[in-house]
Amino acid sequence: MDPHHLTLLRIHDACQGLSAEEIEALAEQADVVHVAASELVHSAGDELDAMFIVVEGRLKMMLEMPDGRQRTVRYISAGDQFGALMLVSDDELPVDVIVEETAVLLRFKKETALQIVEQFPVFRRNLLRKIGFATRDVLLPRHTRVLPKLITFVNADHKTRKLVAEFALRLSRIGEQVGVLCDSPNASPFDSAIPFRPLRKQDGEMLDHAELHATIQQWTELSRIFIVLDGTPSADRLAFPFEVSDAVFCFAATDRFHPVLELLKGMMQDSPSWEKKTHLVWVLREDEKVAPVVPELGKLTKRDFKLQVSDSQAPTRLSTQGIDRIVHYLRGVSVGMALSGGAAHGMAHLGVLKALEEEGITLDRIAGTSAGVLTGVLYCAGYTPDWGIHQFPHDLEPGSIYKKLPKGGAFYMLKQYRSHTWDEMLRSYLSDWRLEQCPIPVSTVTTDLISARSVVRSSGDAVDAILESINLPVLSAPICRDGMLLVDGGILNNLPADVLVRQDCNCVIGVDVAANIQHRVGDNVPNTPTKRMKTPGVLATLLRCFNVQAHNMSRVGAQRADVTITPNVSMFKSSAFRQTPEMADIGYRATKETLPQIREFLQNLDGDLFHVTSATEAR
After folding, report:
1. CB of 171 closer than 8 Å to CB of 330
2. What is the pLDDT of residues 243-292, one digit of tens each?
3. What is the dihedral of CA 34, 35, 40, 43, to 10 degrees?
């Protein structure tokens, strides 16, 4: 077997825990199969007489629906397998298996595979785990959610009532029947096509519990019922809506949140279980990027959202995205993006984010490692991709002395780490903001050398989280914090798609800037004669080691992504921040090329919500 493929087999999930000798014994019994994109590997109804280990590329399983259409039911990426379940069954595999990206498979004939699982118990256990993951995804699919029908909005005013009207309009446009019960007799700004009833009687008195219940019962045929309560109602007035609602959203202005805090304290004191269906919606001014830190409110609510409200008629970028996230939530959709590490190559992430924004695809969560954290946290804090494309080359421009030195860019990066310049630069962007203040929920991944585990942060100082995740060993000392020695997150998890799966995202888009790697170190290429080879310097060797590790660790992370974008920026140096615009452009174009796959997955997830083809149609 080719040494490269043997290396990929060693890091395959099915081989974790096996000795080098056992893996080599496995390799000797496998046939290496190269398959091109669009090639049919297995046809529905045919007998599957082998088990396949995927070491490179990506395949998909297609099931024919009753109406004759084919639907993608599962993606199979490097690190996965198919056919293991057929070892204990003679049933036909009722799906087509089609190559989506050129792939390399290791084929084990059925009789051979049966012998292997008997011979190697660890291999058998790993296969059973993979089968278990696949079975769980079928029995408990991530895209199946219980949707709230009766929803109460608290502390509405003329601005936030417009937001509620927009939620209702968005849902009605995709076929839902939404009715609104409001304690204001004025139906404005709700669309005239949406059923509207005031919560007050003609004498101005509010409907009592029995009358409100009877009104709700008259609308049982509707998909959703919104109860909209202006101002900060009394606990007595809120008790019944809280009790009967499936979800409650409380609006809080950044400078006037204390009444909401006191109200929720009183409500939760009597019924602590209501916390599980209560959500906070921070209302940000147009000049605000992040929400305030109020830990007490976080303890009283299930989660929070941030919505920017503009005084002008035109919605801002952050207000449109905030509305999208709440509509996603009401539809049971959570779109996450995992951004890989890769040093300066991570600047390609900016182009990916820009392309998705242009297409009207709003992200609900982001998780990043190393360079993915550097770009991801700033994006989640409200900075635009174009801002990053302009700012990073400017702020990371090496001085004239470094430009004159051979490999001056690498030495400049070393200086950035050793002199703690990163901290000063990042504070100028993020001040003392915390991760939990960001409009988009964001998670950062770093590595603790003491416990030998990944550390995932979704709260805490944003700059500290970035510095931990980009902290390359040797170039900089480990960061000592809370009994941990923290270094670059890519050491153990370079593409944290698994983090988003655990956070209940049912669409995970991975961006792997380490997927492509040049087979060159200095002037050395695979066919360089030994006598002509040159030993690279220590710094160049270290950077290459990080690149090789990131390249291989990303393959593991990509297994949990539903769609992976792989911008090829391997021709750029790891320190080439000055070439951010060029790398961002490659990320942009790679995303545009991958859009059909993304849209296909989103349409399978929610065909009504994602049936449109452009951002303009979507809104």
Report:
1. yes
2. 888 999 999 999 889 988 988 888 888 788 889 899 999 999 988 999 99
3. 20
Q: In 10 A of CB 382, how many CB atoms?
A: 21
In angstroms, the CA 237 to CA 279 distance is 18
Contacts of 566 (CB under 8 A, 6+ apart): 511, 512, 513, 515, 516, 590
DSSP per residue, 556-574:
HHHTT-SEEE----TTS-T
Q: Which residue has the tokens 């903001």?
A: 433
CB atoms under 10 Å from CB of 233, counted, come to 17
On the question of pLDDT at 618 being above 50, the answer is no
Confidence tier at 407 by pLDDT (50, 70, 90): low
Alpha helices of 40-83 — where are they, by DSSP H?
Answer: none
Q: Is the dihedral of CA 43, 562, 612, 606 positive or negative?
A: positive
CA–CA separation, 78 vs 81, rounded Å?
A: 8
Contact 598, 545 (CB under 8 A): no
The pairing of strands 150-156 and 178-182 is unpaired
The amino acid present at 52, given as its one-letter code, is: F
**Reported pTM:** 0.82
pLDDT at position 613, please? 42
Query: Who contacts 420 (Cβ-Cβ below 8 Å, separation ≥6)?
Result: none
Chain-centre distance for alpha carbon 472: 24
Q: What is the spatial distance between Cα 275 and Cα 260, in angstroms, rounded to a whole number?
A: 14
Q: Within 10 Å of residue 493's Cβ, how many Cβ atoms?
A: 27
Q: Residue 156 in contact with residue 233, Cβ under 8 Å?
A: no
Binning pLDDT at 50, 70 and 90, where does residue 614 land?
Answer: very low
* Sign of the torsion angle spanned by Cα atoms 75, 25, 516, 512: positive
Joined together, the tokens standing for residue 232 give 């900060």
Query: Cα separations (Å) of 256 from 153, 161, 228, 393?
Result: 17, 17, 19, 39
List pLDDT tens digits, range 154-175: 987 888 888 999 999 999 999 9
**Rounded Cα distance, 267 and 260, in Å:** 10
Distance set, CA 491 to CA 10, 449, 457, 481, 550 (Å): 17, 10, 16, 18, 7
Task: For residue range 75-122, list pLDDT tens digits in order.
Answer: 787 778 888 887 766 667 788 999 987 889 999 998 999 999 999 999
* Strand segments (E) across 295-424: 303-308, 335-339, 365-369
b vs e for 356-367, b when ≥16 Cβ sit within 10 Å of the residue's Cβ? bbebbbbbbbbb
- What phi, psi does 500 have (nearest 5°)? -70, -35
